[in-house]
Amino acid sequence: MTELTRDQRVGPYTVRHARAEDLPGARSVMLDTFYREFDYGYVPAWHADVVDLDGTYLRHPRHTLVVAARDDDEVVGTTALTSRGPAHPPHPRGLVERYPSGRTAQLLRVYVRPEHRRHGLARVMVRTACAFAASVPGYDRVYLHTNVNIPGAEGFWRGIATEVFDARTTGEHGEGFGTVHFEIPIRAMTPGQATGPGREPAGVM
Asked: Please, where are the H alpha helices in 13-139?
């Protein structure tokens, strides 16, 4: 079994690439995050992947969905990776040119239920997704954007990624969204890296 497929233990949790039986729990984590923490709920234009997690992630060879699950298999955290770069609008044209679809591995849906944070789950899930991206031919870099108004988000991402554009002054997502764009070098995070508890964000958009 390779490092990319091996389940990783994090205390009482297991971090793994999602299986079909994980999808209902993963969808629940995502929807609860939209409604309870982001306050805007499900938005079809933003969240189409959540309706079809199987088609978007499990059946696409260049995409993956990583989950964190308790020993009873309850999914408590998610991280997704797709081959889609940022879109203009709302994002600046320069970012679209820098992170083209197909060559860009975009992280999204990095969510951990509040009662399961501070165990390092988000970091291990992101590391697992990045290792997957490094194994897939054609990806040049890992990209993400996040709302730094979410408690814990800015500190978490600045600890593992490099800021490429601060969009807070542009208001690209509207009032209440402090959007900042980040990049992670394609091979910066590997399964063997050390990890530990830390402040974890509610998620990236």
From this structure: 23-32, 44-51, 53, 93-98, 121-135
Tell me the backbone φ, ψ of residue 75, rounded to 5 degrees.
-80, 125
Bridge partner list, 112: 77
Q: What is the pLDDT of residue 54?
A: 98
Query: What is the three-class DSSP state of 192?
Result: coil
The yes-or-no verdict on residue 189 having pLDDT over 50 is yes
CA atoms 44, 47, 51, 52: torsion sign: positive
pLDDT digits (tens, 9 = 90+) for 119-143: 999 999 999 999 999 999 999 999 9
Does the model's pTM come out above 0.85? yes
Tokens of 18: 């999602």
SS3 32: helix
Which residue spans within 121-185 are E strands per DSSP?
141-147, 162-166, 179-185
Buried b (16+ CB within 10 A) or exposed e, 167-202: beeeebbeeebbbbbbbbebebbebeeebeebebbb
